[in-house]
Design brief:
Blueprint: H1 10-13, H2 20-32, H3 34-41, E1 55-58, E2 65-68, E3 73-74, H4 76-80, H5 85-88, E4 92-97, E5 104-108, H6 109-125, E6 133-137, H7 142-154, E7 157-160, H8 167-176, E8 181-185, E9 188-190, E10 193-195, H9 197-208, E11 215-219, E12 233-235, H10 236-241, E13 252-253, E14 257-263, E15 271-276, H11 278-291, E16 299-302, H12 309-321, E17 325-329, H13 340-348, E18 352-355, H14 357-364, H15 369-372, E19 381-385, H16 391-401, E20 408-411, E21 445-448, E22 459-465, E23 475-476, H17 480-488, E24 495-503, E25 509-514, E26 518-521, E27 524-527, H18 528-536, E28 541-551, E29 555-564, H19 572-585, E30 594-597, H20 611-618, H21 635-642
Parallel strand pairs: 4-17, 6-7, 6-8, 7-14, 8-11, 11-12, 16-17, 16-18, 18-19, 19-20, 29-30
Antiparallel strand pairs: 1-2, 3-13, 4-5, 9-10, 14-15, 15-23, 21-22, 22-24, 24-25, 26-27, 28-29
Helix pairs in contact: 2-3, 6-7, 8-9, 11-12, 14-16
The structure holds 5'-O-[(S)-butoxy(hydroxy)phosphoryl]adenosine.
Length: 648
Amino acid sequence: MEGKVVEVQAAWREGAHVDDAQYRALYEASVSDPDAFWGEHGKRIDWMTPFTKVKNTSFEPGRVSIKWFEDGKTNVAYNCIDRHLETRGDQTAIIWEGDNPDESKHITYRELHAQVCRMANVLRNRGVSKGDRVTLYMPMIPEAAYAMLACARLGAIHAIVFGGFSPDSLASRIQGCTSKVVITADEGLRGGRKVPLKANVDAAIKRIGTDLVEHVIVVRRTGGSVEMEPGRDVYYDEAAEQVTDHCPAEPVEAEHPLFILYTSGSTGQPKGVVHTTGGYLVYAAMTHQYVFDYREGDVYWCTADVGWVTGHSYIVYGPLANGAITLMFEGIPTYPSTSRFWEVVDKHKVNIFYTAPTAIRSLMGGGEGPVKKTSRASLRVLGSVGEPINPEAWEWYYNVVGDKRCPIVDTWWQTETGGILISPLPGATALKPGSATRPFFGVKPEMVDAEGKVLQGPCEGNLCIADSWPGQMRTVYGDHERFEQTYFSTYPGKYFTGDGARRDADGYYWITGRVDDVINVSGHRMGTAEVESSLVAHPKVAEAAVVGYPHAVKGQGIYAYVTLNDGEEGDDALRKELVVWVRKDIGPIASPDLIQFAPGLPKTRSGKIMRRILRKIAEDDFGALGDTSTLAEPAVVEDLIENRQNRP
Ligand code: WT7
C-alpha cells in the first residue's frame, strides 16, 4: 500500500490557498525564520495591543518556557465574533443540527454576539472574572459554544469535561482546577437517549463536598426534571433574562490561559493541558484555513464533541476566528439511520467534512447503500483525525463517500499540540492512503531512535518536534515540572509526542501509534494506568494490567488481565460486574472489551510487569513473545496463552 500515490487533481488546485511549490516555499520560510514568518501571520487576528516580540521559547531541560507574541494583548471572543460583525453580521456562524433530524437552526454572527454577551454577563454576575476557572459539562448544543466564548470574553479559563465521563471523573477535574462555577444542561440527548448531565454534576459535587462549587448554571435541553439546589443552581434561561446582551471583551495578554483540557497520559491522573490566547488562536485559525482549504462561504462540519480538543480548535475557535460557517452536531452517526452523516451533508450543503476513522469503519460495515442513496455533491474536502486511518477505511472514505472527487486530509495532532501538525494540504500534497504526509508551516518533526539519536532520511523511530509552534501547550495546570518531565525529559531539548512513526523516501510521515502506555480507543485517549487503578479498587481484585489490542472498529480495544483475591472465582458475572465498575468509575469510554482472569502476571525478578508479553498475547500473537528468560515465573505465560480472550 505504501507505494500508492493519489496525485493532486486539477480541481483541488483550482482556487486553493497553496499549491505544492507555494507549500514548499512557505514551509522553508517558516522554519528558517520563525520570527519573520509568525510575525507576519500573527497579524491574521486583531490585537488590542499589537505584539512587538514574536517567539520566545526554550525546550532546554529544567528551563522549558514557551511564549509567543508575549507583549501583545487581544481577546479570543472578540476575534471570533466582534471583528466579523461589520462584514458578516448577518452571515451564519453556527449551524446546529439536533439529535432529532427535524431539529436544526442557524445562528448568525450577530446572534452569536448577543448570546455570548448574555452568557458572559450571567457569569460575571456570579463573580467570574479574569483567570477564574469554569467547568463545562455540556451536550453538543449552541450554548456549549456560547459558554466557551463567554469565558474567553471575560478572560476566564474554561475546562470542558466530556459528557461521557462519570461523576467521579468530573469531580476530580473540577477539583483539579478549583472551579467555583459549573455550566451544564438538564440532560443531553444522543441517539434518542438521554444523558443525565445535571444528576452527574450533583453526584460529582456530593463527592467534592459543598465548599468549592458555588454556582451551577443549568441550560434546559430536554426539559427533563432535575433537582435544583436553592442558592446554588439556576436555570440559564432565567438568569439570562436578568442581564443585557452587551458585555465588553476583556483584553488579555497573549499568554493568558484560554482553556484547560484534561487528557490521559501513561502514568497517574489525567493532566490539565493549558492552552493560552494569542499563539493558540493564530495557529488554530491558520491550520483551519490551509488544511481544510477553507474558502469564503464554505459550510464546514467537524463531527467531534467540544469535550475533546478537536471540538475546541476545529468546531469553535479556528473556524469562528476565520469567520466561517461551522456545523455543530448533537447526534451520532447511526441515528436514526446509518445514512445520518450524509443526510446532514445534503441538508446543509456541507463542503468540508472532518471525522474520525472509527466512525468511517463503523459505517463501512453497513456497505455502500446508506451512502449512495444520498447526493454528497456539495463535498469538496474530507478530513480524518484521532488515530491512524487504515488504508481500507481510507479507500472507502475516498471512493464511496467522496466519489473519488475529494482529497482526504489525514490530520495528525494531539491535545497538547493545540492544532494540526502533520497533514496534507488539498491543493498541494499528493496523498498516500494511511500517511499524514508532511508537516504544517513552522513544524519541525524529528525522528529519533531509542537512544535519542536523530535519524536522517527514510527511517522508523519515535516522533519528536524539534522546536516550538504557536499552538503548543504551555504547561500542565499547576504542575510545570510534570510538563517538563512528561514531554521534554525523554529526549532532552525536544518535544516528545509519545508516538512512533515511519518516514518514507518522499519525507512523508506514517504515524504507527503510541509507544507509551496510552491506548487509543475510537480516537479517544485512555491511560492504561487509569483503567488499572479503577480495577484494583474493586474489592475482589488483587492486581490488574491493561493493554490495547487491535479492534476492527475502535482501532484499539481495552484488554484487562485481572488477578483476583484468594478465594474469588472469575466468571462471566464478575466480568460484567467489573465492566460496570469501570464505566461507573471513569466513564463508558474506559469499558474493558476483554477481561482475562489470570492467576499471575508475567513479572521480572524485580517485580515489574512485562507488558510487552501481555500485549503480544492480547494481540493473539504469542508465537513471537521474545525473550522471556528474565521472568520470575515463566510458567504464568503458558496459563495466559491458554486462557487468552482474543481468539478469531
Ligand atoms: C493521539 C492524540 C488531536 C485530536 C484527536 C486526538 C493519535 C491523532 C492521528 C492521525 C495517527 C493520530 C496519536 C496522538 N492520532 N491523530 N491522523 N494519525 N494517529 O487527540 O486525544 O490528544 O490523542 O492520537 O497517537 O498522539 P488526543
